[in-house]
Amino acid sequence: MSMNLPLDGNNAIAQLEGEMNILKNLLVKSLVLTSLVLTSLVVVAPQGSAADPKLNAACSKAGAKGQAGDVAFVCTKVGNKLVWKKAKNAAAAKPAAAAVKPSGTLNIAHWDFLAPKYGAEMQAVIKSYEKYNPNAKIETVGIVRAVYETKMKIQLSAKGGPDLFTIPDTFYPELARSNLLEPLDNVFSEATKKTMNESNKGGIWRGKQLAITWQVAPYAFFWNKDILEKAGVKPPTTAAELVAAAKTIKEKTGVTGFAVRSRLAEETPWWIDFNNWVVGFNGGWSDGEKLTIDSPQNIAAVTAYKAVYDSGGFSVGDDASTFRSKFGQGLVGMMIDATGALPAMIGEKVPSKSVGASKLPFPGKSTSQVGILFGINANSKNKALAKDFLNWFLIKDTQQAISEMIGNTSTVATETIVPAAFLLENPWAAAYKENGKSTRSSVPDGFESSTSEIRKEVLTQIEQVLLGKMTPAEALKKAQDNLS
Questions:
Q1: Cα separation of 35 and 360, whole Å?
Q2: Is 427 helix (H, G, I), strand (E, B) or coil?
Q3: How far lies 419's CA from each of 117, 184, 220, 354, 380, in Å?
Q4: Distance between CA atoms of 361 and 220, rounded to whole angstroms?
Q5: Residues 6 or more apart from 396 whose CB is under 8 A from it?
Q6: Are the C-beta atoms of residues 394 and 132 closer than 8 Å to each other?
Q7: Residue 358 CB neighbour total at 10 angstroms
Q8: What does the alpha-carbon distance between residue 247 and residue 254 come to, in Å, rounded to a whole number?
Q9: Among residues 105, 360, 437, 481, which is most buried (max CB within 10 A)?
Q10: How far is residue 343's CA from residue 350's CA, in Å, rounded to a whole number?
Q11: How confident is the model at residue 32 (pLDDT cuts 50, 70, 90)?
Q12: Rounded-to-integer distance, Cα 174 and Cα 450, Å
């Protein structure tokens, strides 16, 4: 374009219009180019980003969550707009710090820690808590069953004793009444409570959970098949047949025909064992409102017990540890005992498949039960650690290990599985599982807090029957009168 040439009027106008159009086109191209350059330099923040929200800034999706520093935000509709608002719990969710497990040494007591066959295994299961909580050390305390309650009462009344301990259900009311057990109502989560079966209600005292279930063991009548075969007797199904079989076994084989507890020195376990005769004859120590110690059913039970005691084939004078050991050596023909006891007697001399079992040889179908609870000493110096232990104790794997270790046929605190292979190898277990459906406690209904006094009086009088100094009717009437 040249502006220096001389032009006439029309040509000048035409040339000027052409140059204006060229300038216009150049200007448009320049603007487009500038826009492209600016676009390449600008980063537009995405709408609704949760990476760095700001209060009242626009967002794109209702309910979207974001976080800025220590503050949590949620995308909220306000009028026609979506904006960031602080979440109700405005503090940002921070990674939870690993919970610090309580530390210390726990002393745990149980008479079964001394069991010949599974005592060591039981201690190993309990000590495996140390893997769950490396800050803890477990010390197991074994106390002979015959003196367990006596020693525990002495220690606990002096504000000593173990941190955790097993509690016979007949001993539990006395401890609960004396406020010697730590309440457990706030120890377990709701999820854990849902796994706890009905048996744990036995640990409730006046509305408070003071203990949980360690074990509820039914009883069964069982025998050494080889001894009965050698003696030429069939497994008895009645009390009269039991007396005859015990006598015959002794006469023909020389070994003890029948064994159960019969010594006042083992007061509490004898009381639980003797309850088999009472409930087996459809009796009971109370009706919930009054004592029924001298009922006809109870008199019949004591009469049957006295008959087998006098049979000549009874384990007179032997305590439980002695006659159990003898059964394991093949020196006792028949017994009535709880499920936890039999696995400890089975071994090389008396293999599992050589043991038969059934309901009790009495008119009724019920058996007694060994109810064992588990609680925390109210005077323990390690309550936090003890409570953590109880939560571990209720874990599925722990409960299964406990169940299998004590023979698979007792009830524990949560539901467990009995392996099919175990039932195949231990045919006697089926009788225990069946008897477990109808167990009855030896704690007198309505007189729970007086159990120890009732137990002492009744067994003292029954001992007089065994010594031949009183009849069953006389002894039970005297007990009834003394307790009324």
A1: 100
A2: coil
A3: 20, 32, 20, 20, 37
A4: 9
A5: 195, 414
A6: no
A7: 17
A8: 10
A9: 360
A10: 11
A11: very low
A12: 8
149, 268 in Cβ contact below 8 A?
yes
Residue that is written with structure tokens 């190898």 in the block: 425
Residues 219-237 have pLDDT tens digits of 999 999 999 999 999 999 9
DSSP E strands: which ranges in 62-135?
Answer: 65-68, 71-78, 81-91, 104-109
102-140 pLDDT tens trace: 999 999 999 999 988 789 999 999 999 999 999 999 999
Alpha-carbon gap, residue 272 to 145, rounded angstroms: 13
Do 190 and 142 touch, CB atoms closer than 8 A? no
332-338 and 355-358 as β-strands: parallel, antiparallel, unpaired?
unpaired
How far apart CA 325 and CA 122 sit, in angstroms, is: 19
DSSP state of 436: G
pTM: 0.67
- Both tokens of 279, joined, read 């409930």
The total of other beta-carbon atoms located within 10 Å of residue 91's CB is 10
Question: What Rg do the C-alpha atoms of the chain give, in angstroms?
Answer: 40
Which pLDDT value is given to residue 21?
53
Torsion (CA) 213, 361, 302, 294 in degrees, nearest 10:
70
Question: What does the alpha-carbon distance between residue 303 and residue 56 come to, in Å, rounded to a whole number?
Answer: 89
Reference 270, options 335, 319, 333; nearest CA is 319
Residue in 230, 295, 324 with CA at minimum distance from that of residue 472: 295
